[in-house]
Amino acid sequence: MTSEADFIVHAGWLFSAAPDAVAEESAAVAVKDRRIVAVGARPDIESTWHTHEVIELPDHLLLPGLVNAHTHSPMTLLRGVGNDMPLHEWLFELIFPLEAKWVSPEFVADGARLALAEMIRAGITCFSDQYYFPETIATVVSEAGVRAQIAVPIIEQANAWAKSSDEGLRRATELHDHWRGDECITIAHGPHAPYSVDIATFETLASISEEIQSPVHIHLHETAREVSDFRLIHGCSPIRKLRDIGLVSPRLQAVHMTTLDDADMDIVVENNVGVVHCPQSNALLASGLSPLVKLVEAGVRVGLGTDGAVSNNSLDVLQEMRAAKLLANKASGKNSMFSAADFVRLGTIGSASVLGRDDHIGSLETGKWADMIAIDMSSPGAQPVYDVLASALLTASASRVTHTWVGGSPLMRDGTLTTLNETEVLARAKAWGTKISEGIRA
């Protein structure tokens, strides 16, 4: 006797990213009521599940939806601006002034839609965002059908969205209450960084976060300069000060973490802090390199983030997986420290764990949401396929993703977006590019 599924996907290969998982050939996933109800060999699924919709993808690798654990989606509209500048000067002399001039609800909505089109095409089904007008981003994300953690920005300097950090904290609580219990949108606190948020604000945030159990998403230990400047003022590292305040816990999502001494590492391990590794952004801005090997060997929860398109130029987690692999090889002097599966897990279940959502997404397991992607492995650049995960890790990019599902709903089918008007999104992005370019030249 068979059970009825909403649809079944048959794929040439499948990698569930679950513990101890290996890539399976000729596998299938059955979906019912937006959740995965069965995963396994094709004959087993066919013998126990029936459906009127069968999707045949014999040349594809089926993966869990990718999770981008750190980005600033509206900054797609500033893609590539000032990439040759050091981080501190780039941020304070170029980016902050540009944002002061251009950021508005319209800018944020159009930039977020551009990012969503790019991320859906790249197989990203969930991401963590941190930018101004987060209520606008949340609405756009919900309309597109993607999952997101919206880290509400908290920064001392007045901006187009909030006049002070106090206003940012108040609005974060309002957004948390508004989206409470939503299936796709979660709200976190997003203090910008130790150099842009006062200690008193961090102390207030520690109390609020503890009371409502909200995640805290922060740029932390991003550069050696940040850490050394902080030590001169406070006499300790940023993460030690945050620990003393009471802000370091498993809810802390520490982004970048390039400069860590042994004492800092102990704080991360002892408090089960989640770390977001952004290899390409850090390399492009020469910010440093997160000690991925040490973090993983110490049992730290590590995920991958692209950072914003303005400091990366690409929102492609597949490329981040490859960059993480290559940089880890260089740092360790070995190419056999981790398997291809380990790096695929970083961008799926690893990132989901850092965001506190690994109970529901990040792997293809029975009971989880049917967030899945399909990667075409038939192109000349992937052939022949001996080890499908190694081939995907070292050759695949966003252009090879053909299908993206969130909760069983197709956000991209055979390379065509279904929830966004791509022509309109691109037209608006080009219009912003023209306007901002003219402003920069003026």
Brief descriptors of the model:
alpha/beta; 15 helices; 442 residues; 23% strand; eight-stranded mixed β-sheet
Q: Major sheet: order of its strands?
A: 4-3-2-6-15-16-17-18
Low-confidence stretches: none
The averaged pLDDT comes out at: 95
Number of strands: 18
Secondary structure tally, helices: 15
Name the quaternary structure. Answer: single chain
Q: How would you sum up the global shape?
A: globular
Largest sheet: 8 strands, mixed
Q: Span from first to last CA?
A: 72 Å
Describe this structure as you would to a colleague:
This protein is α/β, with parallel strands linked by helices. It contains 15 helices and 18 strands. The strands form 4 sheets. Strands 4-3-2-6-15-16-17-18 form an 8-stranded mixed β-sheet. Strand 16 and strand 17 form a beta hairpin. It is globular and about 65 Å long. The model has no long low-confidence stretch (mean pLDDT 95).
Topology summary:
Blueprint: E1 3-4, E2 7-14, E3 24-32, E4 35-41, H1 42-48, E5 49-50, E6 54-64, E7 66-71, H2 87-102, H3 105-121, E8 124-129, H4 134-144, E9 147-154, H5 165-178, E10 185-191, H6 199-212, E11 216-220, H7 224-234, H8 238-245, E12 252-256, H9 262-270, E13 274-277, H10 279-284, H11 292-297, E14 301-304, H12 317-332, H13 340-354, E15 372-376, H14 388-395, E16 401-406, E17 409-413, E18 416-417, H15 422-441
Parallel strand pairs: 1-5, 2-6, 7-8, 8-9, 9-10, 11-12, 12-13, 13-14
Antiparallel strand pairs: 2-3, 3-4, 6-15, 15-16, 16-17, 17-18
Helix pairs in contact: 3-4, 3-15, 12-13
